[in-house]
Amino acid sequence: MVKGWLCGLGRWAGSVLLLASALPGAAATADLFFPAVPQGSSIVELSQDSPVLRQRAATIDLAGLDSAAPRRGGSLRLNLFDDASLDAAFDSGVSRAADRFTWFGHLLIEPESTVVLTREGEVVVAEIQSATQGHFRVRHRSDGTSVIQEIDPDRIPPDALALHSELPTLPVSQDFPSPPDEGAQIDVMVVYTPAAREDEGGETSILAEIQQAVDVTNDAYENSGVTQRLRLVHTEEVEYTESDDM
Predict the structure, then answer these.
(1) Cβ atoms of residues 58 and 173 within 8 Å
(2) What is the distance, to the nearest Å, from the Cα of residue 122 to the centroid of all Cα atoms in its chain?
(3) Contact 49, 78 (CB under 8 A)
(4) DSSP string, 173-215
(5) Beta strands at 185-192 and 229-237: parallel, antiparallel or unpaired
(6) Which of the two residues, 20 and 160, has the higher pLDDT score?
(7) Are 192 and 199 in contact, with CB atoms under 8 Å apart?
(8) 73 vs 27: CA distance, rounded Å
(9) pLDDT (tens digit, 9 = 90+) per residue, 200-246?
(10) Distance, CA of 159 to CA of 157 (rounded, Å)
(11) How far is CA 49 from the centre of its chain?
């Protein structure tokens, strides 16, 4: 009789463990990044003044990312480097389609950190910023793999000075006054050069970067209680040859 009771208790305990592992809040432990295929995909050698401290090639578990993104409280294992494997918890998201979304979260060990992943089809870009763990980013490459980088923010060069030109003064019609603009929505058009596209790993990759910038801005507006939102209305490549000559 005692033996039968113990067997029943074992089956009950096993059922409880299975149920707990299936709950929505159960943490995901699978690594998000796999070794790049083919093995040893070439990485450009870093210069001494590069803001990139180290980097490695990888592929991304898209199914794992998709399964965690819709679940509030779910987590992702960000196995960035051998000595930097971090769990990130989901906070909120922006969904444009099943394979097009932005994932906002934070590191479990640091609630004030930020993790942002944007997926556009087969392309994923990410930014991880932590006061204690460092600054990391994930970028797509033209060969279909990704590159994971650790960044030194102090080495990032400042933006170039803006170029100014005199614009013509246009007459203002008094016959058809414009209605007042509440400013709740700002339509944004982004253009980019062929060089920028190549630097970001192709067209889909740079579009993901642009979309992430819009989503991060809107998330900052929301967290700050600001009413206005950006709406990305158009992106286009322009035929312009970039130059360091100002």
Answers:
(1) no
(2) 13
(3) no
(4) PSSSPPPPP--SEEEEEEEE-HHHHHHTTSHHHHHHHHHHHHH
(5) parallel
(6) 160
(7) no
(8) 8
(9) 888 989 999 999 999 999 999 988 999 899 999 999 999 888 776 54
(10) 7
(11) 25
